[in-house]
Specification:
10 helices, 4-stranded antiparallel sheet
């Protein structure tokens, strides 16, 4: 599946920000009203820890929706690694707008940068191998596309977006359809042209998936020995994806088996927000 690119996300970013501002500001920021309406201000946002940055477009959209008079000046770009205390961006405009947008803007930036930072860490672990690390559907509700974009900023790649753009036939699907061959055949009939992936739990099921013509076979918690066998047995007839029970201690060894992909839920779900700070100057 192709990676998301920022140019395709304009409507999604606007919608993400509208929801964020609606839940945070609601009928109006009553605390910001303590500041005279015409007061102008500047602000600087720094990171308190090393990180890989992602989410600048969401920050821009927050202040565009609150008050287009706010000027945002970036010192870094998405995908860039920065050290602690680095100035990320500065703001200038109505003080009320800067304060009203602070929390929503930083929420997006610290969360998406956390994803990018984690992805860069994992990508570095398999550097020099041809494997592609893939995300999963284990994302924050409402922020899937944002998180999947952040994955690409960290040097990893996107799996399917949802349940609509590719088949992933798992154990329960196989049982309900009466077998792997029947499930794959039905998938081809339902949506010709959509990628068909089959999850298998042993080498016997791998053979069934290959014979059925699956595009991708997910090797679910197979041993390293069986993964090596699977790569030899497949011989390019389908792409192979390793999944399940994968962590930083065994990731490199799995990558070296020759599988094409490794999918990791941890890229988007096991993250810690990057510590950011904004300081206002009136």
């Amino acid at each position: 599946m192709p990676d998301l690119i920022l140019a395709d996300l304009s409507a999604e970013i606007a919608a993400n920000v509208r929801r964020a501002l609606a839940e945070d500001i609601g009928g109006g920021d009553i605390t910001a009203q303590l500041i005279p309406e015409g007061r102008q201000a500047r602000a600087r946002v720094i990171t308190r820890e090393a990180a890989v940055i992602a989410g600048s477009a969401w920050v821009d959209e927050v202040f565009r929706q609150i008050d287009p008079r706010v000027a945002v000046r970036w010192e870094v770009a998405d995908g860039e690694r920065v050290d602690a205390d680095k100035l990320l961006f500065s703001l200038e405009g109505p003080a009320r707008a800067l304060l009203s947008g602070e929390r929503s803007a930083l929420n997006f930036l610290q969360t998406l940068s956390a994803v990018a930072t984690r992805c860069r860490y994992y990508a570095n672990l398999v550097e020099g191998t041809p494997v592609r690390l893939l995300d999963t559907r284990k994302t924050l509700p409402g922020l899937r596309l944002a998180q999947k974009y952040a994955v690409t900023c960290g040097g990893c790649h996107n799996h399917r977006i949802g349940l609509f753009d590719a088949f992933l036939i798992k154990e329960n699907h196989i049982a309900a359809c009466g077998g792997i061959a029947a499930a794959v055949a039905t998938a081809r009939r339902i949506a010709p042209g959509k990628p068909v992936e089959v999850e298998v739990e042993d080498l016997q099921e791998l053979d069934q998936a290959l014979n059925a013509g699956a595009d991708i076979v997910m090797l679910d918690e197979l041993s390293l020995e069986d993964m090596h066998i699977a790569v030899r047995r497949t011989a390019g007839r389908a792409k192979l994806e390793a999944s399940g029970g994968i962590n930083e201690s065994n990731l490199r060894r799995i990558a070296e088996t020759g599988v094409d992909y490794i999918s990791l839920g941890t890229l988007t779900k096991d993250i810690k927000a990057v510590d950011l700070s904004m300081r206002l100057q009136l």
